[in-house]
Amino acid sequence: MRELQFREALREAMSEEMRRDERVFLMGEEVAQYNGAYKVSQGMLDEFGERRVIDTPIAELGFAGIGVGAAMNGLRPIIEFMTFNFSLVAIDQVINSAAKMMSMSGGQYPVPIVFRGPTASAGQLSSQHSQAFENWYANCPGLKVVVPSNPADAKGLLKTSIRDNDPVIFMESEQMYGDKGMVPDGEYLIPIGVAEIKRAGRDVTIVSFGKMMKVALKAAEELAKDNIDAEVIDLRSVRPIDYATLINSVKKTNRMVIVEESWPLASIASELAFAVQRHAFDHLDAPIRRVMGGDVPLPYAPTLIEAYLPNPARVIAAVKEVLYL
After folding, report:
1. Is 279 one of the annotated active-site residues of the chain?
2. 8, 60, 134, 231: which one is catalytic?
3. Is 301's pLDDT higher than 90?
4. Nearest-CA neighbor of 56 among 24, 76, 39, 79?
5. Distance in angstroms (rounded) separating the CA atoms of residues 222 and 46
6. pLDDT the model gives residue 54
7. Which of 8, 12, 17, 129 is catalytic?
8. What CA–CA distance (Å, rounded) separates 239 from 53?
9. In the chain, pLDDT over 70 holds for what percent of residues?
10. pLDDT of 123 over the 90 cut
11. What percent of the chain has pLDDT over 90?
């Protein structure tokens, strides 16, 4: 095991897969000469050259389309968006081309492509640069959507995503690139669609993914001081979703709180709540609670950001509500 930053784990994943398979290449804004906007691709241009680490103009629709065409012709592109807010410029290629081509071609054209970059809020970036679109992309058949919460998962899941024959949306957090964690030595892969119980417990199930796992785990630590034993589950991917792990946990704890940064309407949390009440209704001793971002564009003022985002105090309050404390 080694301690790596989140960005270093992503870089290792891409570099190892590029050494393994010459069809893999990285393309996006500032990924080459500048070493990546967040230094994820630092040093990769020197190793792999400008044919495989490619700087693009500020033209997301254009380079996303090039990536889809390259994938249809046998290559395995990694397309970096500087943030997923900018993927909206390219969403026609992601939704109408990458996600649908396998089906529309009757299986003749798989699209093995990874679209990756940071999602959701990152400091005072205001409304247009702070949006969490995990549920948007998860709503589209044909895509897989991965949202890792730590360096070890980031590396294992990205390597799996690059090898996958379907298009994968790989969503990171700008605020996590400097996070450090232990990463296994040697080759390892983590399957897409398998959640992980990060903390076992008996009193309540707390479910989250990505950056919000920090909030969930911190809340669990504080709850333990009050002798409340929370089980914390990291989804790791939001399409596909590992429903079985969630349902089995609720059958044990009988209560669930879901933590998600996005807007409340039509969220991943809404889907999880439906699935659990559909398949584990008789095991629930309280209504499922969600702790979500605000139902407004994210403001710029730090006081309003604090009020908007989920935090441990809000999670603790929701847990105590479902425990009737």
Report:
1. no
2. 60
3. yes
4. 79
5. 46
6. 98
7. 129
8. 28
9. 100
10. no
11. 99
